[in-house]
Design goal:
The complex is a heterodimer of chains A (276) and B (292).
Chain A: H1 3-28, H2 32-52, H3 56-74, H4 82-101, H5 106-115, H6 123-142, H7 144-152, H8 154-159, H9 164-186, H10 191-205, H11 209-234, H12 238-256, H13 261-266
Helix pairs in contact in A: 1-6, 1-9, 1-10, 1-11, 2-3, 2-4, 2-5, 2-9, 3-9, 5-9, 6-9, 10-11, 10-12, 11-12
Chain B: H1 3-27, H2 31-51, H3 55-74, H4 81-101, H5 106-115, H6 123-152, H7 154-159, H8 164-186, H9 191-205, H10 209-234, H11 238-266
Helix pairs in contact in B: 1-6, 1-8, 1-9, 1-10, 2-3, 2-4, 2-8, 2-9, 3-8, 5-8, 6-8, 8-9, 9-10, 9-11, 10-11
Classes of the chains: A mainly alpha (276), B mainly alpha (292).
Membrane topology (chain A): Multi-pass membrane protein
Pfam families (chain A): ABC-3 (PF00950)
Protein name (chain A): Metal ABC transporter permease
């Protein structure tokens, strides 16, 4: 194995693990559509960074932070504002496409911004992914109780004296940092697959949050490794291969879930986080 | 006709058809579902291109499978529909990328499918949009009242003896037909703008469904025309330009209506169309709605 694919393996496994673990929160809060909005706005940031020649993580991070700020103020993820979010999603994406298409040879840049290029991951990207992995692991461990409470019963969380807005913003910031770190490897269009595929599969096999988080992280890391192996063997796009494996994983989980329909119905279903 | 003439015609036709169907999509709160369908139609179109069969036939076949899959998933209430749609969306898009990347010249092909190639449309593409447009007009003419009834009061609709599954299926298949003709022109990741944004703009100005449809059609056709003109004069991607025009129109409408509502609220009158309140008495699609 060359140094190139070793770095790609490390980057994909780290990204997969972080996304898988944090994804459990995304699935519990039903934030799939919101995450997609996020990814598309990040795309605009990546394009701006590509054009100005700065680090794409910087562009992605700035765009993601703006998205968090707008979201926590105006509640874009609430059901009411779905069309607004839909327009924002495609508007940000289209602006990125227009900007990038003004440059010669834009196909290659567009491809890298959309679906990432894990094979060009440098040591800086890997160091960053490691730091974020530690950060997410720490936050999920320390805030385990609060996050679970806020996901299932926002009213009770407020009544107990917690500040739900703070918890929600913290979760959104974690999500932004994760999407930013994942950007060089999996681009703007694919983090959603890594965030919800392994996590939703884990939640189909167990309904307890801690085991689901560990299992989600493990499945995410495994998807990353398997995606790289498939891509090297069949010579197809690496990050997209990883995302397809995440989707296949969910199909497998849905088919083999040991929880019966009755058990699943009996489990407390988390309230959609309309306050976000 | 020149390539630019055909592109303008295609963009205007697509904007009109998209404007018509977007009102139904908005009433049923299906934007996320539409986004997922556009992404999931993408591998079908790629497969058709690789196999050398008609793009519309390939995309359409794949799309019908997806619609059936979504209807089947939505019959299981214990499953989070938004998670399932999200996975379908990203994994479907990724599958398309994987299939494409197995071929040479991958970056250029991916660009064509994700952001569209409206300047290369031929007479057969124009014919396809026209046929789909007639289907949409037909559906709205025959079942328009039923669709509105179903959107606003699902239980009364079922109690009145109609079959909700049949009308849902008809609506979703029509949406899929519009997506299939929109994807080659404006691309898989931008098609959602054609199918959602016109009604989102119209919704800001009025609550009346007929007026909303008229504004949506005008907004869709107008953005198509302006977008292609901008694209040809400034040499940028056409699909992107159309969507940016639609987005700008939305932002301007949002600003204008917010200012108008602030003025009327200060005068103590009830605002005409406050974007923060639901359109109406809560239109919803119980089966495939997303729970943000």
């Amino acid at each position: 194995m060359s140094g190139l694919s070793e770095r790609a393996l490390l980057e994909l496994v780290l990204t997969g693990a972080v996304c898988g673990a944090l994804g459990v929160q995304v699935v519990l809060r039903r934030l799939a559509f919101f995450t997609e909005t996020f990814g598309h706005i990040t795309f605009l940031g990546i394009v701006a960074a590509t054009i100005t020649g700065t680090d794409i993580k910087l562009g992605a991070g700035l765009a993601a932070m703006c998205a968090v700020a707008v979201t926590s103020r105006h509640g874009i993820a609430s059901r009411r504002n779905h069309q607004h979010a839909g327009v924002m999603v495609s508007g940000a994406l289209a602006l990125g496409v227009v900007l990038i298409s003004a440059r010669p040879g834009f196909s290659k840049d567009l491809t890298a911004a959309l679906v990432g290029s894990p094979l060009t991951a440098g040591t800086g990207d890997i160091a960053m992914a490691t730091v974020v992995a530690a950060l997410v692991a720490g936050a999920l461990t320390l805030g385990h109780k609060e996050l679970a409470l806020a996901a299932f019963d926002p009213g009770a969380t407020r009544a107990l004296g917690y500040r739900t807005r703070l918890i929600d913003s913290g979760l959104l910031a974690l999500l932004a940092i994760t999407v930013m770190t994942a950007a060089p490897a999996v681009g703007a269009a694919l983090p959603l697959a890594l965030l919800i595929g392994p996590a939703a599969s884990a939640l189909l096999w167990t309904r307890r949050i801690l085991p689901a988080t560990l299992l989600g992280g493990l499945l995410g890391a495994a998807s990353g490794a398997a995606g790289l192996a498939v891509s090297l063997h069949y010579r197809v796009a690496t990050a997209a291969g990883t995302a397809v494996i995440c989707g296949a994983l969910f199909a497998l989980a849905a088919a083999t879930s040991t929880l019966t329909a009755d058990q699943r119905r009996a489990c407390p279903s988390p309230a959609p986080a309309t306050s976000l | 006709m020149t390539a630019v003439g055909r592109a303008i015609l295609e963009a205007v036709l697509l904007g009109t058809v998209g404007g018509l169907i977007s009102v139904q999509i908005t009433l049923r709160r299906l934007p996320f579902f539409t986004l997922a369908m556009t992404h999931a139609t993408f591998p079908g179109v790629v497969l058709a291109a690789i196999a050398g069969i008609n793009l519309y036939a390939g995309g359409g076949l794949f799309g019908v499978l997806i619609v059936l899959g979504v209807l089947a998933l939505s019959r299981r209430p214990e499953q989070g529909t938004s998670t399932a749609i999200g996975i379908m969306l990203s994994a479907g898009f990724a599958l398309g990328v994987v299939l494409l990347s197995a071929r040479d010249g991958f970056s250029k092909d991916l660009t064509a499918y994700t952001v569209g190639q409206i300047l290369t449309v031929g007479n057969s593409d124009l014919l396809a949009v026209t046929v789909v447009g007639l289907i949409v007009v037909g559906l709205l003419a025959v079942a328009g009242r039923q669709l509105t009834f179903r959107a606003f009061d699902p239980s009364a609709y079922a109690a009145a003896g109609y079959r909700p599954t049949a009308i849902d299926m008809a609506l979703l298949l029509t949406v899929e037909a519009v997506i299939v003709v929109a994807v080659p022109a404006v691309g898989a990741i931008l098609a959602v703008a054609v199918l959602v944004a016109p009604a989102a703009i119209a919704r800001l100005w009025t609550h009346d469904i007929t007026a909303m449809t008229a504004i949506a059609v005008a907004a869709g056709a107008g953005s198509g025309l302006t977008g292609v003109l901008i694209s040809t004069s400034y040499d940028v991607a056409a699909g992107g330009a159309i969507t940016v025009v639609t987005g700008t129109l939305f932002a301007l409408s949002l600003a204008a209506t917010t200012a108008r509502n602030a003025v009327t609220a200060r005068r103590g009158r009830r605002p005409a169309a406050d974007p923060a309140t639901p359109v109406t008495a809560g239109p919803q699609m119980k089966t495939v709605e997303e729970t943000g």
